[in-house]
Design goal:
The complex is a heterodimer. Chain A is mainly alpha-helical. Chain A is built from nine helices and no strands. Helix content of chain A is 75%, strand content 0%. Chain B has a two-stranded antiparallel ribbon with strand order 1-4. Chain B has a two-stranded antiparallel ribbon with strand order 2-3. Among the domains of chain B are: 65 residues, 3-methyladenine DNA Glycosylase II, Chain A, domain 3, CATH 1.10.15.40; 59 residues, Alpha-Beta Plaits (2-Layer Sandwich). The chains are: A mainly alpha, B mainly alpha.
Chain lengths: 193, 190
């Protein structure tokens, strides 16, 4: 049980996907202008990452390993993730228009995100079991959501702050992201896994 | 050699299966847009002002199709309510005062520029991006784009936005539009 807790703490704080492993930087920079969109993106990412780690684990364990085709993992994961997300998007659209309005536009965006593929591949690299894979994916997504929401909140303040001219716009955002990353490095050594 | 064949076969069969799943989903989960929503949306004034408490005209149109009251659109006013009542076959109701009053004249927002402190709050409030400006810079309204929806007046911390009626100039003056009854009979004749 404590192993599972350790995985969660490790992925959320210590090995945070965005700020420590530098995966999923594009939505981190691109969709963090407003807090609302950041929250929508985070929800969609949480959903997709968890789902993707489950499906890619199943494909790897029950198709690729028995056939000794481990080297095909990247291409088959891309395919699996794209299909699962596409399918879920259609199903959500039909069954729950409300949920579709919250997640809808973000779902296709997140499909090709490096964090999603990264989670699937890291699961294999770390020899995670099925439950561990789910937790690893979920933890990564929660960590992503955490920094995404914090960063969006900061950027909303920065837009009205008096920033020196050379640093305005993207520059100050990059610096902010760098400082956040430094802060998260402080968690190193909190748990060893 | 055979391992390559297996690999190709596996990828091909995966692709075919996934394609079949997606194709099935596209048919099974097809969402038919409600045609009445589009018709309602056409009647609404498309100011996207949100005074009806929905985020725009299309969501309000969807809500009306779902049974929402038709009298929540101040920019559309009485004529829109009558048109909606006509389309939906319900009794027209007076405009719901809770959502604002209909204006007799088309209005436009004007920023008193010397008082503007450049806080960007009105820019964020404007549903159609008709306000230009940047933080700590003076803002101004693009009069041609402004729909007169009032939404920027409330957030302004220094109250420097006025709603003024659009003045009739030599360019914008026109004869009175034909009465509704004439237009209606013409439509019937066609």
């Amino acid at each position: 049980m404590s192993d599972y807790l350790l995985i969660l703490v490790s992925t959320i704080l210590v090995n945070n996907f965005v700020l420590v492993q530098f995966l999923g930087l594009c939505p981190f920079m691109g969709v963090s202008n407003k807090l609302e969109t950041a929250i929508g993106m985070s929800a969609a990412t949480t959903f997709v990452l968890t789902l993707a780690s489950v499906c890619s684990y199943l494909v790897y364990a029950y198709l690729l390993i028995p056939l000794e085709l481990e080297y095909l993992r990247t291409i088959s994961f891309i395919m699996v993730i794209a299909v699962v997300v596409g399918f879920t998007e259609m199903a959500i659209r039909k069954t729950s228009p409300l949920l579709y309005r919250v997640l809808g536009i973000f779902l296709p965006l997140i499909t090709t995100n490096c964090a999603v593929l990264g989670v699937a591949l890291l699961n294999i690299k770390r020899d995670n079991s099925f439950v561990e894979s789910i937790l690893y994916g979920f933890g990564a997504a929660v960590g992503f959501s955490l920094v995404m929401v914090m960063f969006a909140a900061m950027r909303e303040r920065i837009t009205v702050a008096d920033v020196p001219k050379p640093f305005q716009g993207s520059a100050i955002s990059m610096i902010t992201a760098g400082l956040m990353s430094l802060a998260f490095l402080g968690f190193t050594g909190l748990v060893s896994i | 050699m055979s391992s390559i064949l297996i690999a190709i076969l596996l990828l091909a069969s995966l692709a075919i299966i996934f394609g079949a799943i997606l194709g099935f989903a596209a048919v099974r989960f097809k969402v038919e847009g409600n045609p009445i929503v589009d018709q309602i949306d056409n009647l609404l004034p498309q100011t996207q002002c949100g005074q009806c408490s929905y985020p725009g005209c299309k969501p309000y149109a969807e809500a009306i199709a779902g049974g929402e009251k038709i009298n929540k659109c101040p920019p559309g006013g009485e004529s829109t309510i009558i048109a909606l009542a006509d389309l939906l076959g319900v009794e027209p109701e007076p405009l719901d005062a809770e959502h604002g009053a209909e204006k007799d004249l088309p209005m436009v927002a004007i920023i008193r520029e010397e008082e503007c402190i450049g806080c960007t709050k009105c820019i964020q409030a404007c549903p159609i991006d008709a306000i230009m400006g940047a933080a700590k810079q003076m803002h101004t309204v693009i009069a041609d784009e402004c729909t007169g929806c009032d939404l920027c007046v409330e957030p302004c911390p220094v109250d420097c936005i006025d709603m003024v009626p659009i003045e009739t100039t030599l360019q914008s003056w026109h004869w009175d539009k034909p009465k509704d009854s004439i237009a209606a009979t013409e439509k019937e004749a066609i």
